[in-house]
Design a protein that fits this description.
heterodimer, A: 647 residues, mainly alpha, 5 strands, globular, B: 11 helices, 72% helix
């Protein structure tokens, strides 16, 4: 009979698919709400159960009939390629068409050559890394779907020109979750490839949801960039078939336990790295993620925080032990670090909140890529911490921006002044999210510290440290100026009474609490989840080797957190005695709201806006040079892969 | 360091640092005045200023200013305490950045043009400082194998010999954090400034006093960071600090019209060419030492 773990795994893979089918069929809003609610509860419960069991002991299960599942998945892959081909034909897009055909041919070659081979002995493996991913997808992913219920109602009220295709929308969202579970649960690389292709297709369709010309262009850009990754992945698998090995290299566990020197694996590693780079939207592939902002906000949140891009870095972190001793890994890390630097600078020049979040996402993924490429235990610790903290805080920020956009009618940061007065709940959550992204003692900063410590011992360490130092300076700049806007005294009248849908309020608050919980619980995450994972993959790993996690430092971080709590309490309950005066405006006529009285008796508002440093950080200035540099680095990486250079 | 000693050192720091910082500011004002052929205020003027500010009426543009300026002061003190008790230098850098964030938020909260531009420019100066401070921490780590300040004292040889480039970068950061140059950045009780009162425009009374005191603490922290480069040559370090201080004042008075763009470019170029190169060389030849 099936073990409870296997049943849990099957629930995670199949419940979202069933929910997707039902959602595609049922039209009334009320049934959709109930369906989404029930399946979310099932998915969250099951992921908690599975994560708990995997935490007690890593799970690896085998199922029978793996052959016909593989065949089924192959048919799915072919269908995906054909759908993309068909849509490219319909919209007359040449590049996606060519790439999709190449992908189709490669898939058939792969299937033909792998036909007679023995199949993977373990079908599903859940270790501590996949446990983290399961929790991220299971909890954050479903919360985003719940949020979408309320959001899509407002979306169609605001965007009257967009045809209402909510059934299609929700079906794709859940299909997406299922594909993500497929990537993190499967052990077979063939199955991972199939799930990989499903995420490509879902993101493609979701980005093009509104069918406006801009959305169509951006969705095709996303699809051709991701197909490049798919092609690289397929090529890697085909190449792996030709490497003689006592273990089955077409599985994750097989790759990681390859008995020969990793020098023999550099070509597939470089190809998989390329696949990871496309999915994680690293330079030069970053434009698909910034273009994906045309989609409704829940899609952006899903793509950015818990799925899609995380699939890219998950694959890279998974193979980090193999990257550790190769120059492929070092160059991969360079691409990531460079992306971090360039996109952090680009984020300074953006005033569209979603665009800022997009660039910051790419930057953080760059940092994770850098850590994965370096691949030492310290670096992997930093990478996993970054994955967790980034997922929670970024999902929160996207959901806040989406809700704020519907309430104040703008997603421009310049329009968010005094938000703390106008929309207290959403703004408070936004403050928590922003602090979580860059301020001490919150999570991302802890991870950056871990990354710094890891870089110092890596090859070319000084280069990485310098990039991190300057990149962090940029992040401080763009986050602080956003944060400042929220705290501004209000010159405008407060927004009229606005109510937030319950389905929006719940995920936002839960995520806000999660950000804080992750910050408080980070020592537990490190010792309970990350150290056991490293223990199994690095034979010489000594837990507690990192200075960051020494008792003194954790205590100091705790003290800092305690001071922040006291200050927040002081702000809430402290004495506000004193006189509120109009601001200083150089002695010009001014009333209490901070306005000038003009010479003709008209009140004029004195208005300033944030710095965007366009002349240094503008897209026009930075994008093209960054593409050139990153393409050169990718070519170097592939070249080193072919040469098989070791450190 | 044991707990009791740490507590004593921390208390001593909290008591002595503002005195030193205030005197430092006083000397600065007198010296600058002399260089500009003025008499200048008495050397204790900063203390008189703060004492007077403390008893002023409570007034603000936005009530949150009170809590934000308190946060600025408290975190600045915390950062100094971490440093003087031999704690972690990275954590200290992060606490400094957090303190400045609160100052900037306080200026933002007024939602007034002068204070907003002041806040933005203060933010730029924080952005300029951050990489240098992180590289200093990285340099110390490469020398001593640890981010703990206390471990630096155990290492043979002084930081200045191994990290001269980083030290130069730090000197320029101190120049920037004195808030005198560039003329279009930050605050301006000093000469040659463009913005009325920069980041402090909207503060008055006790809030402004807190910002001043925090500024004294910051100066002491940065100067003691410079002293760290001379752990085995304490007398020499005292002389060096005085020399550097005078040199910085001269530089400041010779270039009264440096803009923030020039500052950003020059400090970052210095950091890249001297600081990073220093670390690269240390990485290559460090094995030999």
């Amino acid at each position: 009979m099936y073990s409870p773990e296997l049943i849990a795994i099957l629930i995670l893979l199949l419940v979202p698919v069933c929910a997707a089918i039902l959602l595609a069929v049922c039209k009334p809003d009320i049934i959709r709400n109930i369906l989404v609610g029930i399946s979310s509860v099932i998915i969250i419960g099951t992921s908690l159960f599975l994560a708990w069991n995997a935490w007690l002991a890593p799970i690896s299960v085998t199922i029978e009939n793996a052959e016909w599942i593989s065949t089924l998945l192959f048919i799915v892959e072919l269908a995906i390629s054909l759908v993309i081909l068909g849509l490219s034909l319909k919209y007359r897009k040449v590049l996606p068409m060519i790439l999709a055909s190449v992908q189709l041919v490669l898939l058939i070659i792969l299937e033909v050559y792998s036909a007679g081979r023995t199949h993977v002995s373990q079908t599903f493996v859940v270790n501590d890394l996949s446990l983290v991913m399961i929790l991220i997808i299971g909890i954050i992913g479903t919360l985003i779907c719940v949020y979408a219920l309320g959001y899509m109602k407002d979306y169609h009220d605001h965007q009257t020109g967009v045809p209402n295709r909510k059934r299609y929308f929700f079906a794709l969202m859940f299909l997406f979750l299922s594909a993500m579970f497929g990537i993190v649960l499967s052990n077979s690389l063939m199955w991972i490839l199939c799930a990989w292709e499903i995420t490509t297709l879902c993101s493609f369709l979701l980005i093009g949801y509104s069918k406006t010309p801009e959305a169509v262009t951006n969705s095709f850009r996303a699809v051709w960039m991701n197909i490049i990754g798919g092609i690289a992945f397929t090529l890697a698998l085909i190449y792996l078939l030709y490497i003689p090995s006592p273990v089955n290299l077409l599985s994750v566990t097989g790759m990681l336990s390859y008995p020969g020197s990793p020098a023999g694996l550099t070509i597939p590693l470089a190809l998989i790295a390329l696949a990871g780079l496309t999915k994680a939207a690293q330079m030069p592939f970053s434009t698909w993620l910034t273009g994906a902002m045309v989609a409704p906000t829940p899609v952006s949140a899903l793509l950015h925080s818990s799925t899609m891009v995380k699939a890219g870095v998950y694959i890279l972190v998974l193979f980090a032990p193999l990257f550790a001793h190769t120059w492929v890994g070092v160059v991969l890390a360079l691409i990531g670090a460079f992306t971090f630097l360039a996109t952090s600078a680009l984020a300074i020049s953006q005033s569209n909140a979603k665009k800022v979040l997009a660039y910051s996402t790419i930057a953080n993924l760059g940092l994770i890529t850098a850590c994965a490429g370096i691949g030492t235990p310290e670096a992997v610790t930093a990478a996993i911490l970054l994955i967790i903290f980034h997922a929670v805080a970024k999902a929160l920020l996207f959901l806040c921006v989406g809700a704020v956009e519907h309430k104040i009618g703008s997603k421009d940061i310049e329009d968010m002044d005094g938000l703390l007065v106008r929309l207290p709940l959403l703004a408070t959550m936004m403050v928590i999210g922003i602090c979580g992204m860059y301020l001490a003692p919150f999570g991302m900063l802890i991870s950056k510290w871990a990354a710094l410590e890891a870089f110092l011992t890596a090859p070319l360490g000084v280069v990485f440290v310098s990039i991190l130092a300057f990149g962090s300076a940029f992040t401080i700049f763009f986050w602080t100026k956003w944060l400042g806007k929220l705290f501004m005294r209000m010159n405008k009248p407060p927004a009229e009474k606005v109510t937030l849908h319950f389905s929006e309020k719940l995920p936002v608050v839960v995520l806000g609490v999660l950000v804080i919980a992750c910050c408080i619980g980070f020592p537990a995450i490190v010792s309970g989840v990350i150290n056991p994972y490293l223990d199994t993959h690095y034979p010489f790993f000594i837990p507690g080797g990192m200075e960051l996690f020494s008792f003194d430092n954790v205590a100091m971080i705790g003290l800092m957190g305690f001071i922040i709590v006291l200050l927040v309490l002081g702000a809430l309950f402290g004495s506000k005695a004193g006189k509120t005066l109009p601001p200083y405006l150089s002695g010009c006529a001014v009333d209490r709201e901070g306005r000038f009285l003009g010479s003709l008796g008209v009140y004029k508002e004195a208005k300033t806006s944030n710095y965007y440093l366009e002349e240094y950080c503008g897209e026009a200035k930075l994008l093209k040079p960054s593409w050139v540099i990153s393409i050169i680095l990718i070519i170097i990486m592939l070249g080193i892969g072919i040469l098989g250079v070791m450190i | 360091m044991n707990v009791l000693l740490s507590i004593i050192v921390a208390i001593a720091f909290v008591l002595i640092a503002p005195l030193l910082g205030g005197l430092f500011m006083g000397c600065d004002r007198v010296l600058t005045a002399r260089m500009q052929s003025r008499v200048g205020p008495p050397i204790l003027q900063p203390f008189y200023d703060v004492a007077k500010l403390w008893h002023k009426e409570k007034a603000f543009n936005n009530p949150v200013e009170t809590i934000f300026t308190t946060a600025y002061l408290v975190l600045m003190v915390l950062s100094g305490v971490m440093f003087t008790t031999g704690g972690n230098i990275l954590l200290m850098v992060f606490a400094l950045a957090l303190a400045h964030t609160f100052l900037i938020l306080a200026a933002y909260a007024a939602n007034a043009p002068f204070s907003h531009i002041g806040a933005e420019r203060e933010l730029i100066s924080v952005m300029i400082t951050e990489p240098v401070l992180i590289l200093i921490a990285a340099g110390f780590y490469m020398v001593s194998g640890s981010f703990q300040v206390i471990d630096l004292f155990i290492v043979d040889g002084s930081g200045i010999i191994l990290l001269p480039g980083i030290f130069v970068a730090l000197c320029f950061v101190i120049l920037l954090r004195l808030r005198k140059s560039p003329y279009d950045i930050s605050t301006s009780e000093h000469a040659h400034q463009e913005l009325v009162k920069g980041v402090t425009t909207s503060f008055s009374g006790r809030n402004l006093a807190k910002v001043e005191i925090a500024h004294w603490f910051e100066l002491v922290i940065l100067v003691s960071l410079a002293i760290l480069f001379f752990t085995h040559l304490l007398v020499f370090s005292a002389i060096m600090i005085i020399v550097c201080f005078t040199l910085l004042l001269i530089i400041d008075n010779v270039f009264p019209r440096v803009t923030w763009k020039m500052t950003m470019k020059s400090i970052w170029l210095i950091t890249l060419f001297l600081g990073v190169l220093n670390l690269v060389l240390l990485g290559i030849f460090g094995v030999l030492l």
